[in-house]
Amino acid sequence: MADVKAESVYPEVVSQDAPAKRGFVAGTIAHFKKWWWVHLIVLICVVLIIIFPIIYVAYPKIAQTDVNNATLNVTSLVFSDPTPDTIHVNQTQVLGNKAIYHPKIYSFNASLGLAGSPVPVSYATVPETASNDGQVIIVDATLQLHNIEATTNFTKAVLASETWELGVYGRPQLKEMVLPKSTVTFNKTVEMKGLNGLEGFALSNVTISAAPGADGTNMNGTVSIPNPSVVTVPMGNITMDISVNGTAVGQTFLNNLNLIPGANIYPVKSLINNTLMLSFIGKSGPYPSGVVPLDISGNKSVYNGQEISYFSDALRSTSLRATLNVTQVLIDSGLGLLLGAL
Ligand SMILES: *[C@@H]1O[C@H](CO)[C@@H](O)[C@H](O)[C@H]1NC(C)=O
Ligand SMILES: *[C@@H]1O[C@H](CO)[C@@H](O)[C@H](O)[C@H]1NC(C)=O
Ligand SMILES: *[C@@H]1O[C@H](CO)[C@@H](O)[C@H](O)[C@H]1NC(C)=O
Ligand SMILES: *[C@@H]1O[C@H](CO)[C@@H](O)[C@H](O)[C@H]1NC(C)=O
Ligand SMILES: *[C@@H]1O[C@H](CO)[C@@H](O)[C@H](O)[C@H]1NC(C)=O
Ligand SMILES: *[C@@H]1O[C@H](CO)[C@@H](O)[C@H](O)[C@H]1NC(C)=O
Ligand SMILES: *[C@@H]1O[C@H](CO)[C@@H](O)[C@H](O)[C@H]1NC(C)=O
Ligand SMILES: *[C@@H]1O[C@H](CO)[C@@H](O)[C@H](O)[C@H]1NC(C)=O
Ligand SMILES: *[C@@H]1O[C@H](CO)[C@@H](O)[C@H](O)[C@H]1NC(C)=O
Ligand SMILES: *[C@@H]1O[C@H](CO)[C@@H](O)[C@H](O)[C@H]1NC(C)=O
Ligand SMILES: *[C@@H]1O[C@H](CO)[C@@H](O)[C@H](O)[C@H]1NC(C)=O
Ligand SMILES: *[C@@H]1O[C@H](CO)[C@@H](O)[C@H](O)[C@H]1NC(C)=O
């Protein structure tokens, strides 16, 4: 039917044209008028064969390559409110994306943990975000800790290592302008600084009293703990064991310890066996110089009355060394007279 109609219109159009052009142009027009539907089908096929693979094969590959090339810098990782099986995290990171595409990244479920660990510490929802270079992404969530062993491995690495690797893994959907959504694998390893075994830990302003006070301690002082990382760790009320060359001499208590990046200065209280301590520095003791090496190792972490095993275990694997000039301490404490008796 279409053919017939086209041909019936055709002679009238041609009759008004210049006779010279008639041959080729008219032939072409006639051809399209007659065969337009073939051209349409061919066009559709070309679109299907060329455009669709671009959209559904090439574009997802480009998107994946761009995601693989993107970098992630964690600028702040703040843990808070630990309980035995949950912890709050506020993680700020900067996306590096030098690619020409800056698709929208839909909200996705990401696993967080030590890179390479078979079990993540937890899962968190990464909010929907743009993917511009320098885009700041904040994950602020309470994490459910399904695997305490994986969490303990994580806290051990953070406390003990000079550097450790954070692994973030997820399968977000992307959308670039009019292109359809594409799912990519987001698998990033972020190199992070750790607390380096609390290196630089120092004890100062130590004073002792002859008998324990009302709180049951007989020694106090100031502790300084540097934190070279961007991680904040809320250790709570911690107890540490003190020994001298393998002999237990007492315990030290640090309340509300929240290790923030930079310097951390806290008061400490201890219960020390003074008799034992004085015996070390006597003329016949092993440290007649009066300077005694203290070995301090973590014992437990309690937060809001509950022991936090993943901190306790990490603390137990951390041991610190501090030297204490007991002679100086006795003088500072007004107990210098005792020195004469040794
Ligand atoms: C992205 O990654 C590919 C292969 O991994 C690499 O050839 C390309 O140079 C990278 N592009 C940029 C901008 O880094
Ligand atoms: C999370 O950290 C960012 C900056 O690092 C801060 O702006 C934001 O207020 C923090 N959120 C909470 C709930 O503390
Ligand atoms: C991430 O950190 C590295 C090394 O500090 C730096 O070279 C890079 O520019 C940073 N990227 C972004 C997006 O901040
Ligand atoms: C995230 O993924 C993990 C593992 O697949 C799953 O257990 C968890 O329920 C997911 N979380 C959300 C909010 O979808
Ligand atoms: C914890 O670390 C130990 C020692 O590296 C390893 O054998 C174990 O598989 C780790 N556990 C988990 C759950 O990652
Ligand atoms: C993520 O990438 C690392 C290498 O960077 C690889 O070992 C690991 O298997 C990848 N994880 C997944 C789930 O693909
Ligand atoms: C030690 O105590 C003195 C006096 O109480 C104080 O001025 C000084 O800042 C303290 N030093 C430290 C490291 O806390
Ligand atoms: C530390 O001990 C000294 C001597 O026993 C005492 O005078 C001082 O008040 C104590 N300081 C603290 C903060 O408990
Ligand atoms: C202090 O240590 C000595 C020697 O080990 C011990 O006999 C004494 O009972 C201890 N004192 C206290 C208060 O624990
Ligand atoms: C430390 O203890 C060991 C044995 O446990 C002993 O041989 C050594 O002399 C002691 N050192 C000091 C300084 O007392
Ligand atoms: C630490 O102990 C003190 C005194 O018992 C308590 O008031 C405080 O809430 C405890 N801190 C934490 C973080 O549990
Ligand atoms: C320990 O303190 C005493 C008294 O202040 C001092 O004479 C001695 O030199 C100090 N020892 C060391 C090793 O600093």
What report would you give on this structure?
The chain is α+β, with helices and mostly antiparallel strands and 342 residues long. It folds into two domains: 70-194, Sandwich (Immunoglobulin-like), CATH 2.60.40; 197-341, Immunoglobulin-like, CATH 2.60.40. Helix content is 30%, strand content 42%. The protein has helices spanning 2-16, 22-69, 148-160, 274-281, 309-316, 326-332, 337-341, and strands at 71-83, 86-96, 104-105, 108-114, 122-126, 136-144, 163-170, 173-175, 182-183, 186-193, 202-208, 219-227, 231-244, 247-259, 262-272, 291-303, 306-307, 319-325. The strands form three sheets. Strands 1, 2, 6, 11, 12, 13, 14, 15, 16, 17 and 18 form an eleven-stranded mixed sheet that branches. Strands 5-4-7-10 form a four-stranded antiparallel sheet. It has a three-stranded antiparallel sheet with strand order 3-8-9, covered by helices on one side. β14 and β15 form a beta hairpin. α1 packs across α2. It starts with a helix and ends with a helix. Mean pLDDT is 89; it is low at 1-15.
